[in-house]
Amino acid sequence: MAAQLKPGQGPLEFSRRLWLRTLFAITILVLYTPIFVLIAFSFNKQNRGGVWKGFTFENYPKAWNNSAIFDAMINSLTIAFVTTLVATIIGTMVAVMLWRFKFPGKPAYEAVMGLPIVIPEICMGVALLLFFNKSGMTQLLAGAVWPLNLLTIIIAHIAFCFPFVTIVVRSRLVGFNRQLEEASKDLGATEMQTFWKILVPFMKPGLIAGALLAFTLSLDDFVITFFTAGPETVTFPVKIYSMVKTGVKYEVNAASTVLIIITIVATVLAMKLQSTEKAN
Amino acid sequence: MDDWKSNRNVFWTLSTPGTIWLVLFFLIPISILFVLSMSDKLVVDGETSINDYDYLTGITNYLRALDPNIISIFLRTLWWSLLSTLACLLIGYPLAFGICFAPERARPLLLLLIILPFWINLLIRTYALKTTMGANGIINWILETVGIGPVSLLGTTPAVIFGLVYVFLPFMVLPLYSTIERLDRSFLEASLDLGATQAQTFWRVTFPLTMPGVVTGIILVFIPCLGMFLISDELGGASSWMIGNVIQKQFGSSNDWPFGSALSFILMFLTFGVLFLQWLYQRRSKGVSA
Q: Are B9 and A115 a contacting pair, CB within 8 Å?
């Protein structure tokens, strides 16, 4: 006779096992402690040194007024917005093309398109560094006015972001019923009208997911930016990199906190959008 | 699927921008990298030029990578990536498993908790880790309070491995979660009903069935680990360089672009080697199930 099972000891109730819960709790603690410490120290009175000296909001206006941090942040956001826009458009077009047509050399085309995703970022970074340098673009844009001096970074970001968009949008298109498209054309709609009125609304969740992915990848990127940035252009990650080397003031924590909040709000918003899309 | 000839206008409109971008800003740069990896710096009258090259001279740069120092850095990179991947698997598998078996309403939130850090900027996370492990960081503060005294954590191998696991854990949890979620639980119930222990059920039923997720997770963690230079730069010291750091140095202070290009290509081929192993595995497992 088997002993009576207490709640939580059922053979498949793994989520109630104590050791699993402990592991989960420890992981969450380890994942979040550094981030919370970073946020906490953005409210530290003393400027640096790692010792808590009391609560203040001063670091936030200081970060805002620190032109180096502010410019880096504006650069990062500008690059991310332009990249998202272009990468989403190009990526979606390629996704629709790959989904709709068969053509000679298609497997090879798909393999090449996957390369920017699989090869190590540093390889792509140095390759683009060489390209911009040898083609004279670096020299040409070095003294250019803002935002033209960001062009090399934007081009590089689009190159590694749009294949991600293609993958996301294409996986959404798999579920599309092509009879809708045929019906639309039978009823006299042009290619353009069918695309905008039938295909785009269907792809919308994929477009949002793809755009969000491109935005985060661009905003997050350090390696490729590090190699493709001109001497005068700095993005926020590159700025943190150099500041961590030379000693950090807590203004950086304040700016980081703002960026963390932007990222989290964007993520949660996109997830909400997608779940309501699904519910409809 | 339509043939491309059935509607050439639409085909060309859709494919042109992406193809141009791919050729101009990916294939051509990679080709330049390849050409430079086979080139040497131009020597005029016994003086080596700073940025002019004698193109396609041979494979000397690849031979230079056979230097024992470079080989040991390559081996270290592979070894550390392997360790970090294993650690991610050991921690990530139970986590993904636990989330999948949690009440349905709690699952999205639990998953979000694990993957949210992935959306936070890598530099911010690295900087946060560095402060946490630093001399005045919270870990040392706890250690001092307990009486173990300050320990220098930064610059050690465990610090780098820890950093890699910290950064890449979500990459392991996500594919595992999506595989385990689709697992048919009646298999587990059948196995337990037929008298297998939990351990037997896990190793002979659950784990083999979730292998695709395990393989994807390993690939998603192992490959970015190989090319990483930020974590080893920030959390390690000069003695804990990975191959990414050496490449970065060739394009920075060493100003030896041809050698850096050759190292990049070796790293790329290592990556392809890993993907080839994955392909072999997939082909074999397809053969078994057919």
A: no
Instruction: Say whether B14 and A94 touch across the interface (CB within 8 A).
Output: yes
Q: Which of B12-21, B128-137, B239-248 has the lowest mean pLDDT?
A: B128-137
Amino acid of residue A23: L
Handedness of CA A50, A53, A55, A58 (dihedral sign): negative
What are the beta bridge partners of residue A101? B2
pLDDT of residue A126: 94
HSE-CB for A158 with a 13 A CA cutoff: 27
Beta strand ranges found along chain B (DSSP E):
2-3, 40-44, 47-54
Residues in chain B: 290
d(CA A87, CA A83): 6
What single-letter amino acid sits at A174? V
Cβ-defined contacts of B104-110 (< 8 Å, 24+): B110/A24
For residue B253, how many C-alpha atoms fall within 13 Å in the half-sphere facing its CB?
A: 3
In which residue are the tokens 């699993």 written?
A20
Q: Which of B73, B22, B240, B248 is nearest to A97 (CA)?
A: B22
Contact assignment for A37 to B128 by CB distance below 8 Å: yes
The residue among A234, A219, A172, A226 whose CA lies nearest residue A199 is A172
Tell whether A237 lies on the interface with B, counting CB pairs under 8 A: yes
Give Cα separations from A273 to A212, A280, B101, B110 (angstroms): 11, 11, 26, 19
CA gap B242, B74 in Å, rounded = 7
**Chain B contact present for A209, CB below 8 A:** no
**Two tokens at A243?**
């500041």
Name the residue among B18, B112, B229 with its Cβ closest to that of A122.
B229
Q: What ipTM, to 2 d.p.?
A: 0.86
Q: Do residues A39 and B138 make contact, with C-beta atoms less than 8 angstroms apart?
A: no
Report helix angle A236-246 to B122-133, nearest 10: 20
B153 contacts B133 by C-beta, under 8 angstroms: yes
Are the Cβ atoms of A51 and B135 closer than 8 angstroms? no
Quote the DSSP letter at residue B6. Answer: G
Q: Does A85 touch chain B (CB under 8 A)?
A: no
Overall average pLDDT of the B122-135 stretch: 87
Most confident of the following: A39-43, A192-196, B81-85, B212-216:
B81-85
SS3 A188: coil
Q: What's the confidence (pLDDT) of residue B90?
A: 95
User: Which pLDDT score, from 0 to 100, does residue B271 have?
Assistant: 93
Judged against a pLDDT cut of 60, whether residue A3 lies above it is answered with no
How high is the pLDDT of residue A278? 60
Residue of A50, A69, A53 whose CA lies nearest to A61: A69
Contact B91, A27 (CB under 8 A): yes
Instruction: Determine whether the interchain pair B226/A120 forms a contact, defined as Cβ–Cβ distance below 8 Å.
Output: yes
Residue B65's alpha-carbon distances to B37, B88, B184, B240, B259, in angstroms, are: 11, 30, 49, 18, 8
What's the pLDDT score for residue B290?
A: 39
